[in-house]
Amino acid sequence: MRKKFLDTAISFEPFSALYDAGATPDQVEEAIVALLQPYVPDQAALRRLAISALATDAICVGVLSSRGDWKAMLDRCFDIRNRAVATDKKLTFEALAFFQRGILSAQASYTKLVLFEVPKNELTLDEFAFELIRTIGFLIESNLKPYIKELYCLSVIASGRSIDLNEILTEDFGKTCEKFKQEMIEESFLAPAPWGVRINQWRNVAQHNSYEVIGDSIVASYGRSQPQKQVILSRTELLTVARELVQRVGALKCSREITILNHIDELESYLPIQEPTEYGHATALFASLATQGFRLRDLQVNVGQVIAFVEDLAPSEGYSRPIHCSQFVGTVASRFPGAAVEVRYFVNDVHVWKFSATAVDLDRVMNLSDPLSELAHAVASVRMSSLRSDPA
Question: Is residue 131 part of a domain?
C-alpha cells in the first residue's frame, strides 16, 4: 500500500480530531448517526453500520455539510435517486446495475488520481495550469461522466418517462449535460458558480488544451461560437474549480452508495459481481477503524495473506483496547475472503500486540451468523512488548 494514499486519507479523516478533543467512541458514533440520519431511513441499520460500512460516507457527508451550496447539491442527488426508486423501483435498480461496472472503474481511476497527484505550490503558473487542467480533464472524463450519465437517467425515471440506458451510455457527454440541464433546477450543479461553465466544457478545455497563460491569468476558451467564449482565472480560482468538481464526485458517489445500502436486500440480485480494488478496501478499512480511534498505518496484501498495521489513537490502560483491536482480524477478513489475516497493534510507534488467524479458520468463522462470538477462538494473540514495566 502506497504511503501517499494513506497520508491523503489521514488528511481528510475527521474522527481523530474528535478523539484529540476528548470525545469518546460512543460520542463519535452518535455524531455519525446524527449526521447520516436524514439519509438512512432504517435507524437500526444506521446504528449497526455507522462505524463500519457507513464510515466513509459519513466523512463525505460531513465535508459536504460544511457549506450550504455543497449540502444542497448532496440533497439534490439524494432527491433524484429517492424519487426514481419511488416512481419505478425495477427500472431504477436496472439503471444502477447498468452503470455499476463503469462507476467502479471510475472509483479505481480516482484512486490513481490520488496516488499520482503531485504538489503544485512550487510550479510556475504555466506548469500549474498544464498540470491542473490535465487533472480536471481526467477527473471529469474518468470519474464524473459515468456518475452524471447515471443520475440523468434516474432523473428521467423519476419523472415517469422511459429511458434507453445504452443510448445515454454512448451519447456525447455534452448532449447529456444539455438534456440534464433541462431536468435540474440548480444550474450550478453542472456549471459550478461563479463561472457558469458546464462540466463538459471544462473537459473540452482540457482535452483540446484550449487555454493560454497571459500575465498572471489563465484564459480558457470553450464552445462552438466564433469567437469562442472565454473564462479568465487566477491560479487560486483554477484550483477552486478542481475542488468544486471533487465535491461533485463526493456528492454523486456518497448519495449512490447510501441509496444502494438503503435498498441492498432488493438490489443485490441486480448488481454484477465485481470486487473493489485493494485501495477501495483500504479506504473502507481506514474510515471504519478511524471511527473507533484507530489509524490504519499500512496494509500489505500478499498472496494468501493480508497484514494490517493499526495505530491506537486513544489507548487506555488494561486489555480492553487490544481485545477490541483483535476483532479487526474479522473486519479485514470480511474484505479479503480466503486470506490469512494478521493485525499488528501499535501504541506510540511501539508494536505491542500481534493478532492473527489462518485462512481456514477465518473461512469457517466468517460464514457463521455471529462471527464475533467465535472469532476469539480463531485468533492467535502474541504480546510483542509492554508499555509498562509490569506486564501484568
Answer: yes
